[in-house]
Specification:
Number of strands: 30
Largest sheet: 7 strands, mixed
Number of helices: 22
Shape: globular
Structural class: alpha/beta
Bound molecules: adenosine-5'-monophosphate-propyl ester
Strand content: 15-25%
CATH superfamily of one domain: ANL, C-terminal domain
Radius of gyration: 24 Å
Length: about 675
């Protein structure tokens, strides 16, 4: 299923030996103040995980009914906090009102996209009391539309506070939300509705990005018209669409199906008693790409997810009561779920959220916002960091970033050069960096420094979080020696582990539990150094990570061959200085079709239509034939080498027709 990581990937990080000790001033008041303390807590969490998690669950979560048993695990099925009843939204909101005295504390500070002339965008702040009220009102809207416990609701909104409100309202009434990133197409929306049988879509007329409008409602209209091969509507389960007014442009409203968000609020009150949910009731489904087929609906349940995201938020970001915390991720990805919504709000933190892009209207949007809101903890992606490096230090230096005390990175490996730049130019040399490794499936951060405790090494996600046992193993599943590359697995279950692939138990088993029996297989290649530090190399399956976005090569290939001109295609990644990886598609066209630049553009747009702009290939290379084995399997390894501009090396004896290689090399413009 997977191939061992290419050792050449290790070269840039193999020689990295700088170590940054946490500054004494930071450690003094941190939640965990020394490596010894981290080691003690970690050992305790591993010695008796049930005791560790059971105690934490009692301390951290507000329960309607206590759980009877901490864990029941028979691979691949885990159940945590059995018999417990609680509500995730009540844990993020209600508990902060009276008991915890945060009613008038800012929960959410939101900044919309600035105008093209640079004028600051609209700004809205919600205190915990206000956010609670809005969530209660919208919960009542959902109920009025017949949404009940367990029903699925698709959320396709821009980065506006209503996205958070909609998610928490679903959680409050016990509906299962599935957020779809705005960069996905009508087809992707329809496919996700069909897969999870959603009853409702919550969307907006449009969202803003770099001065243009993303036509979300139009995409929903298109999605609801799409039919399958038998001529049946794909998104037939949808009963109603709630539309938020955001961009104010003309849209179609279908009587009896589409309802304006603001109008619906007129019919409801602002009181709502949070539904009592079981620990293991599903909280949300999030679709993510895998190595085969269509995206999988990863689902997470209530108590374990909430506890784990709450604890990791507190320890990894060292959250304190007066922090102003900003995670720049989109709510459509798991980072937005765990570290904009559930984790920080469960801690009663002040969360900054933004709409737009890092370089609009100018390449200092982030630094301007940090200055303006006095952000203390900042969490972003390596792709953004590398782009800022390119745009120049002067954009950073224009702003006072002295409020920052901690920096975080997520989504892809961070190269030591970008790490150092982040540390020096953004963090002024004083802020610890937490390079956090995790996945949609893991629900929360599994490997990361604990600031104040863990010495960091640029490019390494360092050590595991409490209760997590990662290991680097060989093809037989045995642990490899220090510094040897291998597959990253997690040996024991943890509370926020995915509970399955929605509606596809077999795929859950096959994808994650078959490769190394009894352990969770991450799909990542990794190396552990002699200090026990983990160095993630990247995916070893056919999943690419382009600018921190996870894209399955099989999905893009199937989009390409659905175009009438394409006979065959193979999609591979090539290293990209900015985006980590870029998507290269090798395409053979059908007889009689001319391979032109116009066709190339058409194919890129076709992929955008089928999947979304997020999956557009960076490069399309026409080929007369693709390199195959005698049994007809495309030799991706060779294509990867060609795409990267490397000499083809390694074994080519199984190649059916050697001349294909020569022709492929020549086909480069
Ligand atoms: O390859 C790893 C990479 O992103 C993958 C997970 O992608 P996704 O489910 O979209 O979640 C992204 C946000 C958590 C992983 O399998 N990845 C994520 N964080 C890191 C990383 N690679 C290296 N270092 C990281 N810190």
């Amino acid at each position: 299923m997977s191939t061992p990581p290419d050792p050449s990937n290790f070269t840039s990080i193999l020689h990295e030996n700088r170590v940054f000790k946490p500054a004494a001033a930071f450690s003094k008041s941190a939640h965990v103040s020394s490596l010894a303390e981290y080691k003690r807590l970690y050992a305790e969490s591993i010695r008796d995980p049930e005791r560790f998690w059971g105690r934490r669950a009692n301390e951290e979560l507000v329960w309607k009914k206590p759980f009877k048993q901490v864990l029941k695990f028979k691979a691949p099925d885990a159940k945590w906090f059995i018999g417990g009843k609680l509500n995730a939204a009540a844990n993020c909101l209600d508990r902060h009102l009276e008991e915890d005295g945060r009613a008038n504390k800012a929960a959410l500070i939101w900044e919309g996209e600035p105008a093209p002339n640079g004028k600051p965008g609209e700004e809205r702040t919600f205190t915990y009391r206000q956010l609670h009220r809005e969530v209660c009102r919208f919960s009542n809207v959902l109920l009025r539309h017949g949404i009940a416990k367990g029903d699925r609701v698709l959320i396709y909104l821009p980065m506006v506070p209503e996205a958070v409100i909609a998610m928490l309202a679903c959680a409050r009434i016990g509906a299962v939300h599935s957020v779809v990133f705005g960069g996905f197409s009508a087809q992707s929306v329809a496919d996700r509705v069909s897969d999870c049988g959603a009853k409702m879509i919550i969307t907006a007329d449009g969202g803003y990005r770099r001065g243009t409008i993303v036509p979300l409602k139009k995409n929903v209209d298109d999605a609801l018209r799409l039919t399958n091969a038998e001529g049946r509507l794909i998104a037939a389960s949808i009963r109603s669409v709630i539309v938020l007014r955001r961009s104010n442009h003309d849209i179609h409203i279908e009587e009896g199906r589409d309802y304006w968000w603001h109008r619906e609020l007129e019919y409801v009150g602002d009181r709502h008693e949070a539904a009592v949910m079981d620990s293991e009731d599903p909280l949300f489904i999030l679709y993510t790409s895998g190595s085969t087929g269509k995206p999988k609906g990863i689902y997470h349940t209530t108590a374990g997810y909430l506890l784990y995201t709450k604890l990791t938020s507190r320890y990894v970001f060292d959250l304190r009561e007066n922090d102003v915390y900003w995670c720049t991720a989109d709510i459509g990805w798991v980072t937005g779920h765990s570290y904009i919504v559930y984790g920080p709000l469960a801690n009663g933190a002040t969360v900054v959220m933004y709409e737009g892009a890092p370089n609009w209207p100018e390449p200092d949007r982030f630094w301007r916002m940090i200055h303006r809101h006095r952000v203390t903890v900042f969490y972003t992606a390596p792709t953004a960091i590398r782009a800022f490096m390119k745009w120049g230090d002067e954009w950073v230096k224009k702003h006072d970033l002295s409020s920052l005390r901690l920096l975080g990175s997520v989504g892809e490996p961070i190269n030591p050069e970008a790490w150092m730049w982040y540390h020096e130019v953004v963090g002024g040399g004083r802020c610890p960096i937490v390079d956090t490794w995790w996945q949609t499936e893991t629900g929360g951060i599994l490997i990361s420094p604990i600031p104040g405790a863990t010495p960091t090494k640029p490019g390494s996600a360092t050590l595991p979080f409490f209760g997590i046992i990662p290991e680097v193993v060989d093809d037989k599943g045995d642990k490899v020696k220090a510094n040897e590359g291998g597959k990253l697995v997690i040996r024991k279950p943890w509370p926020s582990m995915l509970r399955g692939v929605w509606g596809d138990k077999q795929r859950f088993r096959d994808t994650y539990w078959k490769e190394v029996p009894g352990s969770y297989f991450t799909g990542d290649g990794c190396r552990q150094d002699k200090d026990g530090y983990f160095w993630i190399v990247g995916r070893i399956d056919d999943v690419l990570n382009v600018a921190g976005h996870r894209i399955g090569t099989a999905e893009v290939e199937s989009a390409l061959v659905s175009h009438h001109s394409v006979a065959e295609s193979a999609v591979v990644g090539r290293p990209d200085a900015m985006k980590g990886q870029a998507l290269v598609a090798f395409v053979t066209v059908k007889t009689g079709i001319r391979a032109t630049q116009a066709l190339r553009d058409e194919l890129r747009n076709h992929v955008a239509k089928e999947i979304g702009p997020v999956a557009k290939p960076d490069d399309i290379r026409f080929a007369e034939a693709l390199p195959k084995t005698r049994s007809g399997k495309i030799m991706r390894r060779l294509l990867k080498q060609i795409a990267s501009g490397n000499e083809v090396s390694g074994d080519t004896t199984t190649l059916e027709d050697l001349s294909v290689l020569t022709r492929l090399n020549q086909s480069e413009e």
